[in-house]
Amino acid sequence: MTAMLKLPRLTPRQEALPILPACWAVLRRDLLSSIRRRQELFNPLIFFVMVVALFPLGVSPEAEFLRDAGAGILWVAALLSTLLSLDHLFRHDFEEGVLEQLLLQPQPLYLLVLTKVLGHWLVTGLPLIIMAPLLGVMVHLDGNSIAYLCLTLLLGTPVLSFIGAIGAALTLGLRSAGILLSLLIIPLYIPVLIFGTGTVMAADEGLAIGSYLALLGALLVLALTCAPFATAAALRISVSNS
């Protein structure tokens, strides 16, 4: 049995803000757990690279076509890569009994959930952003388009993680949860996909992109403020029904 979650002992100075060391304990445990499970850590990144690399072979290797479709290719690959990792967001904690401990902690559950989603983004979304410039060169995007692509991924991938966390919590403990999770989450990902690719395409055509970035930012703020509460409620329901 994997070691249970241990919250650090609080110093007198930390007792005024006990949530901070608790969140750090959750984040640290999630990051260490991801490092131990290297296969699950690298699968989304490998999938991201494979989709982008194989797309020209299956459709067209022409530079002009890839330049026009490059932003969409990278965004769809990033979306699917994030979806690939969502099934494990809460499942390991649920199977090891850690999730029940989180529910019993005196700290607000939505803040602990926010920390877990942050950890998920650090090990899935951030590597995709780091890899995006190299893959952007592969699909013949220019430097300006690659910069805007990375900016949209920086704004959009956290939204994917927050929305996915709600679906992962709702399907926790169900059979064929991966298929059900995809059916629940993919329709909610469409606005992020549209605004993300639309930003890069508008920048490539010399159009104003302020409205696209504002909408992506609004989606991020909405997900940041609402998704942790929805995920916490879904976790309570799933654990109580298990």
TrEMBL record:
The lineage of its organism: Bacteria, Pseudomonadati, Pseudomonadota, Gammaproteobacteria, Pseudomonadales. Keywords: Cell inner membrane, Cell membrane, Cytochrome c-type biogenesis, Membrane, Transmembrane, Transmembrane helix, Transport. Belongs to the CcmB/CycW/HelB family. It is a multi-pass membrane protein. It is found in: Cell inner membrane. One of its GO terms (biological process) is cytochrome complex assembly. GO terms for molecular function: heme transmembrane transporter activity. It comes from the Bacteria. Its main location: membrane. This is Heme exporter protein B. Pfam families: CcmB. The chain crosses the membrane at residues 41-59, 110-134, 146-172, 179-203, 209-235. GO terms for cellular component: plasma membrane. Required for the export of heme to the periplasm for the biogenesis of c-type cytochromes.
